[in-house]
Batch of 2 targets.
Target 1
Amino acid sequence: MGNNNITLKHVSKQFGKTYAVKDLNLEIPANSFTSLLGPSGCGKTTTLRMIAGLETPTEGEIWIGDRMVFSAKEGIDVPANQRGIGFLFQNYALWPHMTVYQNIAFGLETMKWKKQDIKGRVEEMCALLQLTEYIDRYPGELSGGQQQRVAIARTLATNPAILLMDEPLSNLDAKLRLDMRSELKRLHTSTKATFVYVTHDQMEAMALSTDVCLMKMAVLQQYDAPLTLYGRPANKFVANFVGNPAINFIDFDVRKEDRQTILERDGHRFSARLDDGATLSGARVTVGIRPESLLVKADGALRGTVVSAFPYGMETTVLIQCMGSELRSVVFGSIDFRPGQEIGLSLADTGLCFFDPETEALIGTGDMQPI
Ligand SMILES: Nc1ncnc2c1ncn2[C@@H]1O[C@H](COP(=O)(O)OP(=O)(O)O)[C@@H](O)[C@H]1O
Ligand SMILES: [Mg+2]
């Protein structure tokens, strides 16, 4: 199944004067699982609908494989039903008066498939989505998760090379959502289709995707592999949006002494080292410290006071007063921290993020140690 990559070139969508999507450039690779991620209202659904052909861009070009399906300049706009795309929306509606079999067969009948081929395909889809034993049931006789699987089976039955999904799991309860995540991953592997998946849930995007496109207020912030967003966020917004519990931000004064870069705050001094030859040239820097990079250690050179602790069983999140700031740390295991307790802390020797306090852009990654 080639030809199922998607290219957006300078795509914008305006509603009146406001941009829902602004100058978006994306190269979505064939067979990828690409997520459009970002807070509510950032333009995810609009982007997906423009790819589908359900929304007309104000500007730009959209390509599916080597076929131009939209161009504002050339006046090309291929209708949705001729773009070879499957959709799955949040409010998927199954036909209540049709069985699982009939719901899945419906699209194939519309496409004038032969009866025997339809039967084979529906059975194949039911096996893939573990629905075989429910094939003669009506939607009202199925659980939410089973209904969701029927909706997916119905969409996949026509064998779309591209599958667009808009928050398809958001109506399911937490446990089911986790089950459906593994299901979607399995489906992606077995269908070899290109998945474009809209979600505002960063954990979902991180867990499922090969690539994440993170947007904020109509503008793309970063388009990278999930772990690149996590480890090398392009700016403070990305760093803060990805990861749970959230990253700590803490500002320091920067001084150069004997070719060393010294960071100072609240009477504490650190020697900073940046990766790949990056340098701190400003007088101030914002350091991003992931909770797992702030280590609780009895003999740590930093001292802190426990504000509160959240034991989740497998790990414990601790809120700590340190260097005049409240910082989050994550500790493996169920450790009983008491509010007011004094603890020692140290910083991991890699993986800190240094941001420009003015532009909020990433300067580089590296580490800093107390001196
Ligand atoms: N049909 C419309 N008319 C006017 N404004 C719209 C319309 N659809 C979306 N918008 C606006 O465009 C922005 C992006 O919306 P949307 O793409 O739905 O965001 P998301 O899916 O990320 O929550 C929002 O500010 C929204 O209010
Ligand atoms: Mg939306």
Target 2
Amino acid sequence: MRLEGKIAAITGAASGFGAAAARRFVAEGAKVVLGDIQLEAGQAIAEELGDSAVFVTCNVTKEDDIANLVDTAVSHFGKLDIMYNNAGIVGAVGPIATTPAQEWKFTVDILLNGVFYGCKHAARVMIPQGSGSIISMSSTAGILGGLGPHCYTACKHAVIGLTKGVAAELCAHNIRVNAISPAGMATAMVANVSTGDPGAIEETKKILAANSPLKGRPGMAEDVANAALWLASDESGYTSGHTLTTDAGITVGATTNPIAFEEYQPLFREAGKSGLE
Ligand SMILES: NC(=O)c1ccc[n+]([C@@H]2O[C@H](COP(=O)([O-])OP(=O)(O)OC[C@H]3O[C@@H](n4cnc5c(N)ncnc54)[C@H](O)[C@@H]3O)[C@@H](O)[C@H]2O)c1
């Protein structure tokens, strides 16, 4: 019961990471307000979670919808301890020279402006409360170039920047602000990109397992939910402004081919000797 007595709001809670976090948070004693544009799927998860969850329609491109999500947490459950800015799409794809400006702006609206609204309205209620944990979804594409489309990469980098800036401001109010950067994980988003079918989660796990530095181990929505759980709980009480990767070490150079690494070691040792002479 690591979140006993805590109230959370989660955007994009009808699928993938958001749904997994809702289930994990409730299993750990939290009550959760689920926000999403997918009405039926969101309501189904709220029903599954019973009295511990309530669903509201929330389009993260609309500031009023996010304000309502936050206000629902306060009116229905009494306060807001955890704000999880998770909703996202892949968005504008293709070469920079031909990316349509409208698609770019639409993507920024969801991936960056939605996170800004989430931080803003969470701060509105958390500052008077004098406590809170804000978690925003970045990506390995928020750390390295070339892992996602241009707009996605730019927005996910910006989420890390926003996280640092807001963390620096809100520490004075005992509010912690952190981000999560997953690699490709088995959710509807990646299933759609990998197979063309958002429902093909099992097939996606096999594809991810074959490409994982942690041999045979795909990244799963539950891995990200566990990272969010730690950032949401008091166990991370002295951590703010941090970006927690759930990427099997990809952003620090882990590869699917450790044999190559072993082959390099003797060469490194030889090179090191010349430095010692
Ligand atoms: N799956 C991955 O490998 C991966 C890796 C890194 C980062 N991410 C990020 O994680 C977050 C969640 O992705 P996921 O993999 O769970 O995808 P998903 O498609 O399973 O879930 C995303 C949810 O966001 C909702 N959503 C989309 N647009 C919205 C809007 N305008 N307002 C409110 N809700 C909206 C969708 O309806 C859906 O329920 C996204 O921000 C994504 O960029 C995913």
